[in-house]
Each structure stands twice: as C-alpha cells, then as structure tokens.
Amino acid sequence: MTWSYRISVMGFGKWIGRRPVLRSAGLAVSLVAPGGPPAPPPANNPPIRFLSIYPAPSKNPAAPFVGVIGDSTGTQLAAPLAAELNPRGVGLVSATVGGCQPTDTVLTYGSAEYFQRHQNCPQDAREKQNDMVFRFRPRVVIWADIMERFDIKVNNRIVVAGSEEWKWLMLESWNRTLDRLGRADVVLILPTWWAGWPRNSPASFPVEQQRALFRSWAELHPGRVTVVDLGPVICPAGPPCEQVVNGVQLRTDHVHYTPEGTRRAIAKIMTDAAILRNIRGPVAGPASVK
C-alpha cells in the first residue's frame, strides 16, 4: 500500500538515529514509500528547503543515500530511481527545484515575468542542496536540468548566453555546485534535444552546445563526474527528435518523459553509471538484489 506522511525535523531525527539534523523553524521533509509520489509541502510552508525523502525499506541509519538535484527534469527521475534503489537498501533524497537551475547564477530566463516569479531560484537551490548534504551525506548525486541556456545577470549588466564570459561564469557556477555536494560522486544527465523543435533549439544556446559544455566540464573532474547521455534511448535517430519514437510516446512535451520514457531513461542511467549501479546498503529481511 502506498503511504506518505510529513514529519517535522525533530521527529525525523529520531528515525535517522545519529545522522546530523539541521533543526530550523519551518524546515520540513516528505517521507515517501518506495515508488510512491512525494506529498506536496504544507500550505503554510514554502517549497524552499522541502526535501522529498524515499528511505530504504530497512530504515537502517547506516543505509546510504543517493541525491537528486536540478529542475523538473530531475524531479521526474526521483521516484522511479527510488523504486530501483530502495530494494538494494539505498535511500534517495530529492533536492530539486522545479523551474530553477541548480546553480547560484542569476539567470534572466528570457522573460521579465518568469524572472519575477523565480528570482529566488539561486538561493532556493543552494539551501536545499546544503540541507541534503548536511543531513544525508549522499554518496552519489544525480544532476539533471535544462536551464543552462539563458543570459546571466551580474549586478546591473547582462552577460549574453554563449559568450566566452558566459561560459566561464557557467563553469565556475558548476564548480561551486560540485563543492556544495561534499564528497558525493555526480552522475550528470546530459540535456536531450527538444522533441518537436529544430536541432539548433533553443536559439539562445542550443542543446548541442549545452551538451558540449557539460562534457568539457565533466572532463575537468575525472573520477568524480560520470556523464550519461539519454539520447540513444529517448531520441535514437538523433535530432530533430519527436515525442513518439517507433510508435511509442516517450515524452509528454519537448523535455519531460512519459512513464515509458522514464523507464527507458532509468534503465540507461543504471547501465551507464557503475557508481550508481554498484551502490548497496542493508536490506531488510532475506531478500537480496542480484
């Protein structure tokens, strides 16, 4: 039976035993059964610092955790990944922020209205990641987002997406994000070409260039950052991509997955990321994972 409930940080501290707990007013978590959807935050609690927790079935304080950061493209992977990892004795904690970049850069989003509604993104992402690392110390963090395509706002000036200064600022922000993740290894999910859009989309900084910049950054961190490309399973023929592939709908829009698309994405991630595939924790009862 699917179950979910919210508990305060003080109550959660009893469950996680000796794990360090950040005791802060208004700090809340969502506890979710394996494969179950996370409960929404309480109406009187802002989404900031609200982590979705998929604990290992053993509830053993020694159980390792895997983290997830990014925007909604990362959020959609959390529950299916937890369903894959929980039977291995591994918990998952999601620190994603929908519609927001996982870095502390200030993006313009190409829209004054969107910027007004999302101007707290850098702070929200940073604080959720800090909470995740402080309380759960994930061994591996999945990083998935598609926000690296907008101009950057630096004080009172705009740095145009794709310029050399922009690339330098973006790489530096990725380095700071990596530093925030403590000792965790990172599985970096490359952005996939947009379904139903030309190959050179978006015009501000095309997916092809996003992928190249991510790869070049990952090469600077050998042994710590593993790159996973979902293109072969989500867009096997290469761009331009479509939502329906060989008669099967894999995406609901240009970037988000259907259940089948998500299933294929998770299988590819587990196949390509040995650091994730090999992680194990205490398993409750006689069941074992092969």
Mean of all residue-level pLDDT scores: 84
- Main sheet properties: 8 strands, mixed
Radius of gyration: 19 Å
Distance between the termini: 25 Å
Quaternary state of the chains: single chain
Number of helices: 9
The gross shape turns out to be: globular
Q: What structural class do helix, strand and pairing data support?
A: alpha/beta
- Share of residues in strands: 15-25%
* Neighbour order of strands in the largest sheet: 1-2-3-5-4-6-9-10
Give the % helix: 25-40%
Any low-confidence stretches, pLDDT <50, length ≥5?
Answer: 1-30, 33-48, 285-290
Beta strands, count: 12
Order of helices and strands: EHEEEHEHHEEEHEHEHEEHH
Q: Could you give a short description of this structure?
A:
This protein has helices at residues 9-15, 72-85, 112-118, 121-136, 164-180, 207-219, 231-234, 259-272, 274-277, and strands at residues 4-8, 28-32, 50-54, 65-70, 91-94, 140-144, 152-154, 157-159, 185-189, 225-228, 244-245, 248-249.
